[in-house]
Design a protein that fits this description.
Number of strands: 19
Helix content: 25-40%
Protein name: Peptidase M1 leukotriene A4 hydrolase/aminopeptidase C-terminal domain-containing protein
Number of domains: 4
Family: Belongs to the peptidase M1 family.
Keywords: Cytoplasm, Hydrolase, Metal-binding, Metalloprotease, Protease, Zinc
Strand content: 15-25%
CATH class of the largest domain: Mainly Beta
Cofactor: Zn(2+)
Largest sheet: 8 strands, mixed
GO cellular component, one term: cytosol
CATH topology of the largest domain: Immunoglobulin-like
């Protein structure tokens, strides 16, 4: 007996789950879900079956066929990373029925009260299960090695609607007798309740389980795409304009990587508290509203999540120790899609921003170089705590290095073969490398595969980027230190990405007066593009410019995306005016905490605990 994943209790001696059937009753007044989960195993099992749970109350475990009780134990010890083990003792059984209740503090769920929504009249709840949070919704083998199909019945208030990263079957009235062990029949069939049914017929890793319930509307933007959001005309219309080019991106993705296997590619724009830029849930990508910038540049985030449809969702890392197989491949695929749809210069700027982020991430881990490796060890480590640009950008650099060695046509053929060979499978780095060497003979003699995957830092054959626009932006940024501000004619054509790249390359040692002058001329704190605003505020904090404390506080209170929370809270606790800025960081988090998703709460708490 041995765990198959450092972040899961799933044991090598246990058969893996291949199907889950869920019944979920949403109780908004208590911020809980009463549920039942029928788990079907790949083969009958005798002995202990280990499942992952976090903050769940387990009320019963039954044999699915006979409905007779099965012995179970929820471990009294709570691991701070993995949660609790649910041990079920089986006797030649292959299917169990578990009833449970979630906690209001479930790490995967954010329950929003009406005042926290756009319309401020009805509540909202949504999931974020990556990396290891599906276990806080239902007991499962919460490892990407266990791919599952599932069906789900969501019982919600009639005035709300539900969406899932799955195929919608129907919306209907509750039926007597179907509540089973999920909840009391009177609750399930109460006046004012409806049931939304869904089915996911392709096997997915548990972290891609996703739903949202609220007052939702939608716009059609293509034959395979609807944009969903809270039912606010202005939000829906601007999102539809921003992502109008989605179908073209899907077509280009299919040309590059093969058939799109998921039927639909819908988008859900979530409230501002959503902790990521996007989450690649199959059939329905979840997005932060901060990607809606009014100039269609937010489509780059959509390109990344779309690319996951091939690399990440179709082929998945077996554990988080191989996370680069998801994100490095997807970053490469995203830039290929952007190159075709938005041009080579736009893709080059994307690479340039990534290069800067990668070098900063490697510097961040200078005291723990293990996490600068593509293939790393994560025993006893929370994956949310080590999330960085390394798997994305070093993974991209590795694949780009192979492409330069083989030539693009040959690498494109390899990619298509790789995807078709391993689709709907979870693999590790060794499997990829063996496939690479078998299909591109001699590649290990030209590219140091061991150094790239197991070495720390950045290999010498990594490559920044060659682009006249990128080179000029970096050069202009360096000149800012000696008082040279970009002229208005030089920035006339700049979009958010150009400003972001410029600001990130301005030396951190500039004077506060220079920073204020830059903002006075170009009004960067008024930008509707959070990438620009946050890049500027980081620069202001690093220069000790206290005049922007109020803008930093405002930003931290209006968005929950960790891409912005991490650098701003870190800059505050490490800032030039340390004591004053530490007090500000502590106060702002205390006031904004309830507006952040639980994952984001944990990340900010970790930052503050290290410095305060």
């Amino acid at each position: 007996m041995a765990p198959i994943d450092p972040h899961s209790y799933t044991d090598s001696s246990n058969p893996l789950t291949n199907h889950i059937s869920l019944s979920l009753y949403f109780n908004f007044s208590s911020s809980t879900i009463n549920g039942s989960s029928q788990l079907t195993l790949s083969s009958p099992h005798t002995g202990p079956l280990l499942l992952d749970t976090r903050s769940l109350t387990i009320t019963s475990v039954l044999d699915s066929k006979t409905l007779t009780p099965i012995p179970f134990e929820l471990s009294p010890v709570i691991d701070p990373i993995k949660g609790q083990t649910l041990t079920v003792t089986l006797s030649n059984q292959s299917s169990i029925l578990v009833s449970f209740v979630t906690s209001p503090c479930s790490s995967a769920l954010q329950w929003l009260s009406p005042p926290q929504t756009f319309n401020k009249s009805l509540p909202f709840v949504y999931t974020q299960c990556q990396a290891i949070h599906a276990r806080s919704i239902c007991p499962c083998q919460d490892t990407p090695a266990a791919r599952i199909c599932y069906s789900a019945r969501l019982n919600v208030p009639r005035e709300l609607s539900a969406v899932m990263a799955a195929k919608h079957v129907e919306r209907r009235s509750p039926v007597a007798g179907e509540a089973g062990v999920a909840c009391d029949e009177a609750l399930w069939c109460a006046e004012g309740r409806v049931v939304e049914e869904f089915v996911m017929e392709q096997p997915i890793p548990p972290y891609l389980f996703a739903f949202a319930v609220g007052e939702l509307g939608f716009r059609e933007v293509g034959p395979r795409t609807r944009i969903y959001a809270e039912n606010v005309v202005s939000v829906l219309d601007v999102a539809a304009r921003e992502f109008a080019g989605t179908e073209e991106m899907i077509r280009q993705g299919e040309k590059l990587f093969g058939a799109y296997e998921w039927e639909r590619f819908d988008l859900l724009v979530l409230p501002p508290s959503f902790p990521y830029g996007g989450m690649e849930n199959p059939r329905m990508t979840f997005l932060t509203p901060t990607v809606i910038k009014g100039d269609a540049s937010g489509a780059q985030v959509v390109a990344h999540e779309l690319a996951h449809s091939w690399t990440g969702n179709l082929i998945t890392n077996k554990t988080n120790e191989d996370f680069w197989l998801n994100e490095g491949f997807t970053t490469y695929a995203e830039r290929r899609i952007v190159e075709v749809c938005q041009g080579e210069e736009r893709a080059a700027l994307n690479i340039g921003i990534g290069w800067k982020g990668l070098n900063e991430a490697i510097e961040k881990f200078k005291d723990n170089l293990e996490f600068t490796k593509l293939k790393n060890k994560q025993e006893g480590v929370d994956p949310d705590d080590i999330y960085s640009e390394v798997p994305y950008e070093k993974g991209f650099q590795f694949l780009w290095r192979i492409e330069r060695q083989t030539g693009r046509p040959a690498f494109d053929e390899f990619l298509k073969k790789y995807i078709s060979t391993f689709k709907f499978q979870s693999i590790d780095t060794e499997t990829f490398l063996n496939f690479l060497k078998a299909n591109i003979p001699g590649i290990e003699k030209e590219v140091d595969l061991v150094l790239w995957t197991e070495g720390t830092g950045l290999p010498s054959d990594a490559y920044e980027t060659e682009s006249s626009v990128y080179t000029k932006l970096v050069s202009l940024a360096k000149e800012f230190k000696v008082g040279r501000m970009p002229r208005e004619d030089e920035v006339a054509d700049w979009q958010g990405q150009e400003w972001e790249l410029y600001l990130e390359n301005v030396p951190r040692s500039v004077e506060a007066s220079q920073v204020a002058a830059l903002d006075a001329r170009y009004r960067l704190t008024e930008s509707k593009d959070y990438e620009v605003k946050v890049a500027f505020l980081q620069l202001a904090l690093s220069s000790g410019c206290r005049d922007y404390y109020s803008e930093v506080e405002k930003t931290l209170k209006e968005v929950g995306r960790m891409k912005y929370l991490r650098p701003l809270y870190t800059a505050l606790v490490q800032g030039v005016e340390k004591e004053e800025s530490k007090i500000l960081a502590k106060r702002v988090f205390a006031e904004a905490r309830e507006c952040y998703h639980p994952i984001a709460q944990g990340v900010v708490e970790s930052i503050l605990s290290k410095h305060i």
